[in-house]
Amino acid sequence: MKIKYPVVLLLIISTFGSLCRADLDSLLVSVTAEEIKNNSAPSMENKIVLDKPVTVEKSTNYLTIQDLLPALKYEIEKRYQINGNLRIFPLRSWNGVALQSTVWKLEITKAPSLSLSSKVLVGFQLTSEGKTIGEWQIPLRCEIWSDVLVTRQLLNRGSAVSKRDFEVKNMDVLRFPNTLVDTGLDLLEYELVQTVSEGQPLLLRDIAAKPLIRKGQVVEVVASEGQMYISMKGQALEDGIRDAFISIRNINSRKNIQAQVIDDSKVKVYF
């Protein structure tokens, strides 16, 4: 009896091992056959491509204040017909904007109507691909650098002026509230109507056209019509610049007439 129990247990373990091995072999053979029947099992890579297509977002163009300033400068120059070198500086930060295109346009919507000053508030609108992106306002400090006539020495009222009395300096003309004299103006036809200190820019209000004819001066009075030509003497009753009409008294008849200044000694009467 002691010998039989171990023999039976050994037979049971041997039989169970054979059955497990047979089942595993059958399973492996089944899977291999299924794969062969369906050619191949679908790969994970093919599933990603077919079921979840990848979309690439359109790259954006971020517009900063440094991108904006050249466009603002161009529009301001065009608006005010700037003669000189315009410089603009933002007095407040601008956060910028993201665009879906590199093509955009700036248009000024608000600005001083008459002239540009050293500090202005400018409104502008941005558009891209026919769509309005937005509108903003930004305060700017402006400078216009141009050649200016500056006195070499003190010039007194009533003095005749010439280019020798001045030197040309490049200055910010917006610093001066009054209009400056253009460097190309022929100063020989002008005189000072107020004293100008040394080192000061010459303003338009500082000069006036020099009279060709002075009050009390005896002048030649001429008149013509067709082949008829008349000449007589007259006395100027007021100062007169070139092409101006002034009052002249006929020395013989003592009558007053209106005549146009032709040069520094002649006036013309029109019938």
Low-confidence stretches: 1-13, 19-59
Please identify the structural class as seen in this structure: alpha+beta
Report helical residue fraction. Answer: 10-25%
The whole-angstrom Rg is 48 Å
Short description:
With 271 residues, the protein is of the alpha+beta class. The protein has three helices and 14 strands.
Word description of this protein:
With 271 residues, the protein is of the alpha+beta class. It has four domains: 4-51; 61-144, no CATH class; 147-209, Alpha-Beta Complex (Type Iii Antifreeze Protein Isoform Hplc 12), CATH 3.90.1210; 218-269, SH3 type barrels. The chain contains three helices and 14 strands. It has helices at residues 4-37, 44-51, 65-80, and strands at 61-63, 85-90, 97-99, 105-110, 119-128, 131-151, 166-172, 190-192, 207-209, 218-225, 228-236, 245-250, 256-261, 266-269. Strand 5 (119-128) and strand 6 form a beta hairpin. The longest helix is centred in the first third of the chain and has 34 residues, at 4-37. Residues 1-13 and 19-59 have low confidence and may be disordered.
Task: Jot down its keywords.
271 residues, alpha+beta, Type Iii Antifreeze Protein Isoform Hplc 12, 5-stranded antiparallel beta sheet, 5-stranded mixed barrel, 3 helices, 21% helix, disordered N terminus
Blueprint of the fold:
Elements: H1 4-37, H2 44-51, E1 61-63, H3 65-80, E2 85-90, E3 97-99, E4 105-110, E5 119-128, E6 131-151, E7 166-172, E8 190-192, E9 207-209, E10 218-225, E11 228-236, E12 245-250, E13 256-261, E14 266-269
Parallel strand pairs: 10-14
Antiparallel strand pairs: 1-3, 2-6, 4-5, 5-6, 6-7, 8-9, 10-11, 11-12, 12-13, 13-14
